[in-house]
Amino acid sequence: MSQTEIRICGHFKLGKKIRSITQVQHYQAKNIQSDQNVLIKIEETKYRHPQLLYEGKILQNLQGGIGIPSMFWYKKKKRRQIKKKIRCGQEGDNNFLVMEELGESLEQLFQNCNRKFSLKTVLMIGVQILKSIEYMHYKSYINREINSQNFHLGIQLQNINKIFQLNFGSAKKYKDSQTHEHIPFREKKPLIGASRFASINAHLGYELSRRDDIESLAYMLIYFLKGSLPWKGLKMTNKQAKFQKVKEIKTKQSIQELCKGCPKSIELFLEYSRSLGFEDKPDYTYLKGILLETFHNQGFIFDFIYDWVLLPLNKIENLEKLS
Questions:
Q1: Are 270 and 223 in contact (CB under 8 A)?
Q2: Where does the chain show beta strands of DSSP type E?
Q3: Of 220, 243, 268, 277, which has the fewest Cβ atoms less than 10 A away?
């Protein structure tokens, strides 16, 4: 059966598969009633621990927040309903989540810009992601997997050029919504996600909290400014040995050396994130303030005109110079 024949609940026509993350597949799709383009995440129900049901619940709770994509349809199948099949062509029985279509990831855009972003672009990204993280924390969740693949550009008219989170499968509640009691500190926890942007606490096997989202964001901003990180690209076949080496570099290299060539605000950002205690609430106002102070001191305007927006214009200018 061709993919153009695949329907989800009679409302959505499945298109091209664009990404696979563990047991969840991402597809381009279209609402056949409204002609609206959407993103559909699909997961077979055979998995013992269905990630998509968990992610859908979190996204549902976060709706309306800064940097949170709109969710249009969320199918939750209980175990006792497993015989009531939702057929999606040859996909078999599936859980699925229909959400707002997003554009390229920051990592893709970074590659398009020859692996270097300007200070203006990095600061605009940083302020937006920080606001989105703050909202998640306000709603009692931590992301736990802040990375350049997980943030995408908005392409819908009302959200064009704004930065959005895409995946929430690693997110977790750090406090009880009713009692506001913080989760307990634990050790010997597995590393979640890629090691590139993981906090030092993650490498040490500590339970993650709000401070770790902030530290991961700091690494991401440094990565975008400098084009790389000292622990990126290690040629090691043994995964555990590689994680150990990344941890060693992160813990031994000084913040000043890591942030060399970056504005002081980035150094302060990372320094502050590492100073936080396990249950500490980050001072988001302070963090936004130091980024925006650098932004305004440089005379920048927060116009959402990033490096990748200017890329076609720069190419035309270069061609004109050569002609």
A1: no
A2: 7-8, 12-21, 24-31, 37-44, 71-75, 94-100, 102-105, 141-142, 151-154, 163-165, 172-173
A3: 277
To the nearest whole percent, how much of the chain has pLDDT over 90? 63
Q: What is the DSSP secondary structure assignment for residue 91, as one 8-state letter?
A: G
Residues across the chain: 323
Longest CA pairwise span in the chain (Å): 69
Q: What are phi and psi of 161, to 5 degrees?
A: 70, 10
Contact 100, 94 (CB under 8 A): no
**Cα dihedral: 33, 35, 36, 40 (round 10):** 70
pTM summary value: 0.89
φ, ψ for residue 253 (rounded to 5)?
A: -75, 135
Whether domain 14-100 has CATH 3.50.50.100: the reply is no
Q: Which fold has domain 103-309?
A: Transferase(Phosphotransferase); domain 1 (1.10.510)
Instruction: Indicate the residue type of 172.
Output: K
Q: 310 burial class (0-12, 13-18, 19+ CB within 10 angstroms)?
A: middle
Residue 238 tokens, joined = 């043994």
Q: Where are the domains positioned within the chain?
A: 14-100, 103-309
Binned at pLDDT 50, 70 and 90, residue 90 comes out as very low
Interval 156-169: pLDDT, tens: 888 899 999 999 99
